[in-house]
Specification:
single chain; alpha+beta; PmbA/TldD fold; 2 domains; seven-stranded antiparallel beta sheet; six-stranded mixed beta sheet; 9 helices
């Protein structure tokens, strides 16, 4: 069907087009207390078509896209393509060009052993030590080999194969007459046995501590420490702020060659976009528009160095070599995790909800489980919330030199933000 669509696009003669075929071959497993409840094999194939239309003698460029299925009839495909062509005339963006430089990178087309990856997940779950008070309720494993094939009207072509896995976990914890469930949802490339085992063991421990946690005191403000996947929200803010789309729309204050804050009193952040990140679910070196993803610093030593994004917004900023970014490494911490956890702080390890606004940097989170450290004593707490401003916290932000990988991001293992608002639900006991 790929060749048929190519012929149809060439016959339609738009002012540019992109065609992507995505084939997903996967296995799915559903376990209840380590007993296999059901499993199935999945194979899907979809085609994404994007058409470009020149408007007012090339002054503007319109575009529209659609997803097509191999089960569609010839008539339906023709009708959908005609509709996309008409929709493209409704968009009037300042003109930009499609990728035209041939991709010279070797294709990543080695076969993915889906069965081996699934076996690693299953064996790791079964190796976790459980007790009568904390155990694994159920887990679902989705492992896929994804093949992506790309071609555009400038004859830029690329194909690659990469693994993508998803884990959905439920653990139970019991204490006297109380029982709770904790949910975990993770994505990755393959199975990192050591990390998965630690994540499950942490979830069991958090469930146990949640049952004995006391109400969070009314602290008003203080230092908050992040050491779980929720910290990705913090670091994704810096990725958004270096996105060309936000810069063009004047939603980012970052300037190339300028520091991201006026004065650093804590650690100084560096952010590197990388073309490949082992065990990422998006480990491929060419983006969805055919642009080669090159290793480059977006922020180095606290100074903005590059923007990234689609062809459209990158060209609006005068960036001809830019691309989308899927994988990034954050670094710059001077001390170890223990030093970041010094003094008094609230370490929140489980939120009911946690968000950092990608444009304003506003922080908001509802505490499900935290560990309050005061005077050398650590108390599990629950309830209440945290809030604040990430841009205001950046000057005193501290983070460990040790790192942890969460799918497409490698971030400091422990992050500390000072002077966040902590809204508790109990009086503070001295």
């Amino acid at each position: 069907m790929f060749e048929r669509l190519k012929e149809k696009l060439e016959a339609l003669r738009p002012d540019g087009w992109e065609l992507t075929e995505v084939t997903k071959h996967g296995w799915e497993f559903y376990f209840i207390r380590h007993q296999l409840d059901q499993n199935r094999a999945v194979e899907t194939r979809t085609y994404n078509v994007k058409l470009y239309r020149s408007i007012e003698d090339g002054k503007f460029l319109g575009s529209a896209s659609d997803a097509l299925s191999p089960t569609m009839s010839e008539e339906e495909i023709d009708r959908r393509l005609a509709a996309v062509w008409e929709q493209a005339a409704l968009i009037r963006n300042p003109a930009y060009t499609l990728v035209s430089e041939p991709v010279t990178l070797p294709g990543k087309n080695d076969p993915i052993d889906v069965a081996k990856i699934a076996q690693d997940f299953i064996e790791t779950f079964r190796s976790v030590a459980e007790t009568g008070e904390e155990d694994i309720n159920s887990y679902e494993i989705f492992v896929s080999s994804i093949s992506r094939r790309f071609l555009n009207s400038n004859a830029v072509a690329y194909s690659c194969v990469y693994p993508s896995s998803t884990i959905d976990l439920v653990v139970n914890a019991r204490h006297e007459n109380h029982e709770i469930e904790l949910f975990r949802f993770n994505t990755c490339g393959t199975c990192d046995r050591e990390k998965l085992r630690k994540d499950v063991e942490d979830a069991l421990r958090f469930g146990k501590d949640r049952l004995i946690a006391q109400p969070t005191p009314k602290l008003q403000s203080g230092a908050v420490v992040f050491s779980t996947a929720d910290a990705c929200e913090i670091y994704e803010y810096f990725l958004y702020q270096t996105n060309a789309s936000l810069k063009v729309r004047r939603m980012s204050a970052y300037e190339i060659g300028q520091p991201i804050c006026e004065k650093f009193e804590g650690d100084v952040l560096s952010v590197e976009a990388v073309s490949s990140l082992p065990n990422s679910s998006h480990d491929y070196p060419v983006d969805e528009e055919g642009s080669v993803i090159e290793d480059r610093y977006l922020i180095r030593g606290g100074v903005a160095e590059n923007f990234w994004g689609t062809r459209q917004f990158s060209q609006y900023l005068g960036l001809e070599k830019s691309s989308n970014v899927h994988n990034a490494i954050f670094s710059g911490g001077k001390g170890d995790a223990e030093s970041v956890r010094s003094g008094d702080y609230l370490e929140v390890v489980d939120f009911s909800d946690f968000q950092v606004d990608p444009m304003s940097g506003d922080i908001a989170g509802e505490i499900r489980l935290g560990y309050l450290s005061r005077g050398g004593k650590i108390l599990p707490v629950t309830g209440g919330s945290i809030s604040g401003s990430l841009p205001a916290a950046v000057p005193t932000m501290r983070f460990s030199k040790e790192t942890a990988q969460y799918d497409t991001l490698v971030i400091p293992a422990v992050t500390r933000l000072e002077n966040l608002r902590i809204t508790g639900i109990a009086e503070l006991e001295e």
